[in-house]
Amino acid sequence: MYTISKELKKGQSYDALIVGIHEKGEFPPLLQNVDQELDGQVSELKKLKQLHTKKGELTKVFTFGKSSAQVLYTIGLGKQADFSLDDLQNIIGQVVREAKKGKLAQLAIDVDSFSIANTETNEIVHIISESVELASYVVDTYKEKTNEKQFSLEAVTLVGEKADEEWEKAALGGRAFGEGTNLSRKLVNIPGNMLTPTILAEEAKKVADKHGFEFDVLEREDMEKLGMGALLAVAQGTDQPPKMIVLKYQAKEKWEDVVGFVGKGLTFDAGGISLKPGLNMHEMKMDMGGAAAVLGAMEIIGQIKPDRNILAVIPSSENLINGSALKPGDVIRAMSGKTIEVRNTDAEGRLILADGVAYAKQLGANYLVDVATLTGAVLIALGNSTTGVVHNNKEWYAKVEEASERSREPVWAFPTHKPYHDLLKSSDVADLNNAPGRLGGSITAGLFIGEFAEDTPWVHLDIAGTAWTSKKTSTGQPGGTGVMARTLAHLVK
Ligand code: BES
Ligand code: MG
Ligand code: ZN
């Protein structure tokens, strides 16, 4: 769908040409050409102050056959100095959605007009194609008329002076990052009845089969043999069988230096006996956002094929209430041998991740990143724009942080001094307490998982605040955000 080109091809027609214009300064060269083709009408618009240049202001100009593009969209970029990559993402999202509304399927984008100081054009190309993908995503619905064909883009031509193979690679890379993120978003948006642990495992297998990854799923009996008492305890409360899903991408001859991703795959969290309040409980279908991020990252990895061994482990269950459900006060034994007093059955994420992390280690992970919609407290601490971090290794975290900067998905690390650790040990009857209280809730939750990572470098990403948005954004509708798929992929790239 992406074509790279140094100029608008003569004899070819485009439904729309998209050009960015700054508040001050001349038209970018491509726009000067189009202006000539249109006998100076774009300049005329500028004189009449009808060519808007403030950030995000869109002007639509019909060319009536005088140019190879039927429609010219100019989009204001504001002042050159404060135009950022985030702005680029938003603006491309905005124009693409507008073009889709107008049923314009063949787009040409003037890449050079979106240049940013100190940023390589390859990166601009990556962000543009990534943003086109993100803006193209549509949330699946289940209405009577749902099956009407969605309008989709057919072709995007990226035009610029430096167009070469590097650009081609960047465009494909950006598309991969966009598609992986959209896979995460899609999974998060699926209702709980349509995405049980069994179906999540099937979705994971699709990703594995598509890219030739090794794939395995542990069933209840396998978990019993391996002593995965924590995952099994959560799964007691539901009729849906739990799954421990494993994908392996082996780039090296030997299975060593393995990066392990562990994603919370709780397909619906009612809280268990420690039942959640009813208001907005339906949103707890998103409690597999960590699993979705990991699978989205694996989709990207399958496309860009980094030179690194990667393991993905997804413990998956529902958290419901039946007659055999886990109860507050129960003591369970995790795979690692540690015992846990379950003070609150709604703190189930850390339980299933305890076994997920232990299993990832057993399968050879030397570096760990877990991703989980783990605590409501992270929303209170950081709001819904920043992912909360707990880690046990500065160097490993520095890498994750750098990857998050590249993907522009902000993270922030919490303090982890000894008093927080002490809270975990506050059970009189077991090694660990799964819910030591509200204070520092995101920290104790993270450190609980860290107890199972032990000495392995480990970073925990709490995406409870960032995995879901109730607002419409320029690149998408409300719902799953796909957060951290790109960060995980950048980490191993
Ligand atoms: N899945 C929730 C966390 C969550 C909250 C995700 C809001 C997304 C949005 C998690 O399993 C949970 O219930 N955590 C409890 C822990 C508490 C009982 C210690 C919480 O945050 O209230
Ligand atoms: Mg819960
Ligand atoms: Zn949960």
Give your account of this protein's structure.
The chain has 15 helices and 20 strands. The chain is an alpha/beta fold. It folds into two domains: 2-163, Leucine Aminopeptidase, subunit E, domain 1; 190-492, Zn peptidases (Aminopeptidase), CATH 3.40.630.10. Strand 5 (106-110), helix 4 (121-136) and strand 6 form a beta-alpha-beta unit. The radius of gyration is 25 Å and the shape is elongated. It binds ligand BES, magnesium ion and zinc ion. Magnesium ion binds next to loops.
For the record, what CATH class of the largest domain applies? Alpha Beta
Q: Output the structural class.
A: alpha/beta
Overall morphology:
elongated
Structurally, how many domains make up the residues? 2
Rg (C-alpha, Å)? 25 Å
Small-molecule binders: ligand BES, magnesium ion, zinc ion
Describe this structure in a few short sentences.
The chain has helices spanning 29-37, 41-47, 85-101, 121-136, 165-189, 197-211, 220-226, 229-235, 289-304, 349-362, 377-382, 394-407, 418-424, 441-453, 485-492; strands at residues 2-5, 14-22, 58-62, 69-78, 106-110, 155-159, 214-218, 243-249, 258-263, 265-269, 310-319, 331-333, 339-341, 365-372, 387-391, 411-413, 432-433, 458-462, 468-469, 479-480. The protein is of the alpha/beta class. The chain folds into 2 domains: 2-163, Leucine Aminopeptidase, subunit E, domain 1, CATH 3.40.220; 190-492, Zn peptidases (Aminopeptidase, 3-Layer(aba) Sandwich), CATH 3.40.630.
